[in-house]
Structures are given as C-alpha cells and as structure tokens.
Amino acid sequence: GEHALRMSALVVTRAETQWKVTFDNPPANVVDPELILELQELIDELEHDFEVTVVVFDSANPDHFLGPYDLARAADTPNAPGPTGMPPWLDLTVRLSRLPVVSIAVIRGASRGVGQEFALACDLRFASLENTAIDQPEVSKRLVPGGGAISRLPALAGRGRALELILGSVVLDGATAERYGVVN
C-alpha cells in the first residue's frame, strides 16, 4: 500500500520499494535550517530501509524545484557535523550520492544554489523543457558554492562548462542543461 507522511517542508509518499519526496516549503522552496534537518532525517531512513530501491524528488510548486539557501536564516543553520564528519549540507549531499537506491530529481521551475547541488547529488536529473531555470548564483553574491557543485559539475559537464556555470552564475533552461550534460 501507499501512505504519505507530511513533514513541515516535505511530503513523503511511500509505496513499497518506491518513495516520492515532494518539496513543499512555501513560498519558493528555499532551503532553510528546518528543511536541512528534515532531509537529514529522510536520508537516515533511506540508509536503513533496505526495501527501498528508488526515491524521486519533485516539488509541489511548479515555479520552484529547490533553493537557494535562505541567507537570512544563516545564523540558525545546523552546524553539528553529520555522520560523514562534514558540515550538515555537504554531509547530506554526500550521503544522498552514496545511497544504495536510485535517486531521481524531477526539476520543474527554479533549481538554485544548494537546491541544484542537491539535484547534482542525485543519480539522475530530469528537467522540464518548458519551465526550468538551473543556476549556481553564489559567485554573483561573492560566495563559494560549497555543497558539491565544484566537485560534481565538472564530472557531468566538463571543466570548462562547469567554470562557465559557476563563475558566471549562468541560468540554464532545460534544453541547455541537457546539452551541457547537467541533466539527463
């Protein structure tokens, strides 16, 4: 049978071997401290549930997949290292990338900063041709993308494209993201 669990920023629907996780953190699915804690809890569960084979991440908001980080809440960010010993967000994306399940990001709308780094940590990424805006806006804000874009983008898009996307804070539509290798 299928059953859904509503957390404050996530809706998790479990159906035997497949889970669907829907980001629902109004108004724009920004990543905040509460969402980080919920995602840590979710990854913990996925690491220990040996029945799950696939997890699909999508969004309740057609204009916002996930991110960027809510910088107004930066002081509230959890800072206790996760099980990998890394800071919470990096720990989360590393653990997501290592899950023994197939993880799929279904991107519709904006996927920005840490939200896109979450998508990059998934095994597969699919983006809407009609409504996708993917970017790493950190450098334009004088920040460094620290959740995995620097290590994961070159493997997908090549070093030159990765530098173009990160240093230029370039916004990609779905077709260009596919052409660059950022999405399937």
Overall description:
Helix content is 33%, strand content 27%. With 184 residues, it is of the alpha/beta class. Strands 1, 2, 3, 4, 5, 6 and 7 form a seven-stranded mixed beta sheet that branches. Strand 1 and strand 2 form a beta hairpin. Helix 1 runs parallel beside helix 2 (88-98) and helix 4 crosses helix 5 (159-168). The chain is globular and about 45 Å long.
Stretches with pLDDT under 50, minimum 5 residues: none
Using only C-alpha atoms, the radius of gyration works out to 15 Å
Secondary structure: helix percent? 25-40%
General shape: globular
Could you give the distance between the termini?
A: 30 Å
- What share of residues are in beta strands? 25-35%
Tally of helical runs: 6
Q: What is the oligomeric state here?
A: single chain
Rounded mean pLDDT is 94
From the helix content, strand content and strand pairing, which structural class follows?
alpha/beta
Number of strands: 7
What is the N-to-C order of secondary-structure elements (H for helix, E for strand)?
EEEHEEHEHEHHH
Largest sheet: 7 strands, mixed
